[in-house]
Structures are given as C-alpha cells and as structure tokens.
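Intended use. Records like the one below are meant for learning the mapping from a protein sequence to its folded structure. Do not use them to infer anything beyond what is encoded.
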Amino acid sequence: MRLDGKTAMVTGAASGIGAAVVRTFARAGARAITLVDVNEQQAELVAEEVSSECECRLFVSKTDVSQGDQVRQMVDETIRQFGEISILVNNAGIAPAVHWPDVTEENWRQVMETNLHGAFLCLLTVAPHMRQKQWGRIINISSVGAFQGSITAHPAYGVSKAGILALTKSAAKEFAADGILVNTISPGSIETPLARQNFTEQERQAYAEAALLKRHGTATELADSVLFLASDRSTYITGATLHVNGGSLLV
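Structure written out for the chain above:
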C-alpha cells in the first residue's frame, strides 16, 4: 500500500498512534506530512526521527484542535507549504481517568471539546480544500468506548467517541460525490504512552484479557489500518467503522 505524492495531516502526532501513523505514512511514500499536537517539542522529535529515514517533507504545528482559530491557521499554513491536504487523520484525543463522582461540567467539556469538537473543526476546515481537488481521505479515530461506554476513562470519553461515528457517517454522505471518503477506525486497547499514563497496570491487564487475542494492540498495527483506509486499496469504503480490537467486542 503506497501514498506516493500524497500530503497528510495527522493530529495527536507527538506520540502513540499519531506518531506511528506519521512513520507509516512516510515509509509508504507520502510526499509531505503535517504533525499536529499541543506538545510541539515531542512532535519535533518524531519529525526528526522520520526525516532521518524517509524523504518526506514534514511540518510541525503546535495546535490545540479545540480552538477554531488555531485549526484554521494550521490548515492555512499547511496549504501554503504543501499546496494541498490529501489525507486527514483525526487522532488527537484525551482519556483522563475520571469516575462519575468526580465528573464536573468543566472536565466534561474538556474531553468533548478535544475529542469530538476538535475532530469536527479539523474536518470542517480541511474538507473544502479536498473538495477543490475532488479527492480526499478522512480517517477519524474512535474507540471501543463508543460501543461499550467508558469504563475507567471519563464518561465523556465514550460519548465523544460515539459522536465520532455519527460525524463520520454525516460527512461520508455529504462528501462522497466529491471523491472524499470518510471512515472511522475504532481501536481496542492499544499500547501507547497515553494508556500507560492514564490507567493502572491492573486496568491495562484487564483490557488485554478482554480481547480474544489476550493482548494489547500496538500503535503500528493500528497505523497499518489507517494506511489501508488512506490508500487506493480502500476505494469502495466510506462511512464505515473498522474495528481493530483483537476481538474485544465479541467477549
């Protein structure tokens, strides 16, 4: 699967799934990638690593995707540097471990604005540029939490990820005639710094046991599924949800 000549934008690109997607896209021949994250320093380290092994133009944008003005500036700068955005991967998200007794309006809004509103803003801002080219791929990262509800993460996490599913379907219907395919990937438990930071070892082990394959997925395995939906091997797929969870929804 190749992405030769394509320009991508990956949010949440400083670590975990996002960083793995950047590496996978660059190795697949992407011409240019914008790495979007609030952690600019860590994103720069990912860019340095990728540039040392791949001939791919890289641009790091320190952006809070929940802020419309920052998203517009990030998209405008990407267009100025690379001329187009072929692929958008909406991966940025947070999953704080907050149980119902500790839920507040403030921490609810924080999760919703980053996970759902941020994906909406990026899609809203990038789609018109794809429409001009009559070609595009938008891949939104959801979660098994969209189907099961949050367990140890903030209750808003599952709600935000369920919203991603509806956002995907609505956008797929709107943009199909413009050659833009919009799909969702719903990961199960993936071994990432975010997971290690937010959940205890006992919780993480329980997630692994919940999967038929009895292990966590890797960020690279998830990135390979993103590559599939971004490539020309998925030209008859839109509005769909690809489950990458080791069979955890079957248990």
